[in-house]
Design a protein that fits this description.
By secondary structure, the protein is an alpha/beta fold. About 45% of the residues lie in helices and about 15% in strands. The strands form 2 sheets. It has a 6-stranded parallel β-sheet, with helices on both faces. The chain has a 6-stranded mixed β-sheet with strand order 7-6-8-9-10-12, with helices on both faces. The protein binds beta-D-galactofuranose.
């Protein structure tokens, strides 16, 4: 009987061993399913990445250049705000070249930054590189200037001024100032060709003056938002108008710096800026406000460069899981010479 029991126990052990071996073989023999292709998840750029409010944020920022006082103030605002918010900032200056901005954005993608922000030097030509950022799962924020892309999910938000409204404000002042005068000749110094501020400031100004037949834009050309080019183009305006026997009544410059360059040309031609030729500009940076306080610029429409704080707060919001409005418009005012004089002492830029 005992022998039988021992045999039964042995058989049971053998059976258990056989079952265990068969199971593990099943595990081993089932071919491992090929891993599903693990493409980086495409990011709905309006959605926030995994929220981890304590992780140090890395931001890749591509700046247009250093073409104007406005740009210098904008760069200072971005850099100082990054420090203030504890954000690790990678910063590049594109010297007003789109190819440099595209290169910088691709570098940030390779560096796997958390966010990319930039002020696009011109509106078009961004679809491909922004798609690369989206496919890499890196949200992109636009500051200052806009892009013209087919798929607006390629960026999370555009924070900056309403340039059309800035042009309207300038145009409305001109309509009011010259409402009782005939045959007013206007020359226009446009910003960087193809940039959203240049396109929209022109659009808003022309919309504002379209029902005033006494106002005519007789010359218009880009001054590239710089003082030097603004002076050069204004010299050519003065020369050609003189040869045509016509006077210039008003200069509309898309930014203070081109207006300041034009003032040099007007004075070198023996004319008085703000009197012989009235001047309206956009930005309201310190040098522009000083010229206005001195009566050389008659009206300035403000365009605030102080976007750094809003940008860094937006990154913190995204990191904590919040979503942002697609369009965040900066608030800004206008200045007559007296208002400029009063505001100058406390101007942050
Ligand atoms: C406007 C900004 C423009 C400024 C110029 O938001 O992009 O670029 O008006 C600057 O002074 O060069």
């Amino acid at each position: 009987m005992k022998k039988l029991a021992r045999t039964g126990a042995l058989l049971a052990v053998i059976m258990v061993l056989l079952i265990v071996t068969a199971c593990s073989k099943t595990k081993d023999t089932t071919p491992a399913a090929a891993p599903a292709e693990t493409k980086a998840p495409t990011v709905d750029a309006t959605a926030a990445p995994a929220a981890d409010p304590n992780k140090k944020i890395t931001l890749g920022f591509s700046q247009v250049g250093a073409e104007s006082g406005w740009r210098a103030a904008n760069t200072k605002s971005v850099q100082e705000s990054a420090k203030e918010f504890g954000i690790d900032l990678k910063f590049s200056d594109a010297q007003q070249k789109q190819e440099n901005q595209i290169k910088a954005i691709r570098t940030y993608i390779q560096q796997k930054v958390d966010y990319i922000a930039f002020s696009p030097v011109v509106e078009s030509g961004w679809d491909t590189v922004l798609k690369e950022a989206k496919d890499a799962g890196i949200p992109v924020l636009l500051t200052d200037r806009a892009v013209d892309v087919a798929d607006t999910s390629l960026y999370v938000t555009f924070m900056g001024s309403d340039f059309v409204e800035e042009g309207r404000k300038a145009g409305k002042w001109v309509v009011d100032t010259f409402k009782d005068k005939k045959d007013i000749n206007i020359v226009e110094l446009q910003g960087t060709t193809g940039s959203s501020p240049a396109i929209d400031r022109k659009k808003g100004f022309e919309e504002a003056i379209k029902d005033s037949p006494n106002l005519k834009i007789v010359k218009t050309q880009t001054g590239e938002f710089t003082r030097a080019k603004g002076k050069e183009v204004m010299e050519s305006f003065l020369k050609s108008m003189k040869s045509e026997g016509k006077k210039i009544d008003l200069l509309y410059a898309h930014n203070d710096d081109m207006g300041l360059g034009a003032i040099q040309a007007i004075e070198e031609a023996g004319l008085v800026p703000g009197k012989d030729i009235m001047i309206v500009t956009v930005d309201a940076v310190k040098d522009g406000m000083t010229a206005a306080a001195d009566g050389k610029i008659n009206y300035i429409v403000e365009c605030s460069p102080m976007l750094g704080g809003q940008l860094m707060q937006s990154l913190k919001d995204l990191a904590s899981g919040k979503t942002l409005a697609k369009r965040i418009v900066t608030k800004e005012g206008t200045f007559t010479p007296d208002q400029a004089k009063a505001a100058l002492p406390t101007r942050p830029y």
